[in-house]
Amino acid sequence: MHVSVTFRESMPLRGTNRAGDTTLFDTSPEFYGTGSAPSPLEMVLQSLAACSMMDVISILKKKRRDPVALIVEVDADRAPEHPKVFTAVRMLFRLQSPDCPLADLQRAVSLSIEKYCSVSAMLRQSGCHIEWKAELVREAYQ
């Protein structure tokens, strides 16, 4: 795996992978940013959600369930001193599906967070506590 990140005179930073896909990174004006893109730490939380979400969708599809929509909300706490690592993360998985029981969703999330998701493994190895909840949503997402 290889990526590069480029700074050209001002924020945002531009990250690029081997395929040429780009991701923008920014920060608040107090740190010379423009606030026009997620910060690197926000991207870590988004990466955690996306990594786990991909696992959950894959697990549910293997169980022949129909995940119509899935939203993962993430909140986190950070250490008060530098490097201000994440100390705790709370995740809420909200699944819309016509045929998935809550037990299947909970099992899929558990497998992802505890076994498959590389991002959650890296956070846990840094001492971050990850807790999660899962719920089924019957109404359509907007």
From TrEMBL:
Transmembrane segments: none annotated. This is OsmC family protein. It comes from the Bacteria. Signal peptide: none annotated. InterPro entries: KH_dom-like_a/b, OsmC/Ohr_fam, OsmC/Ohrsf. Pfam families: OsmC (PF02566).
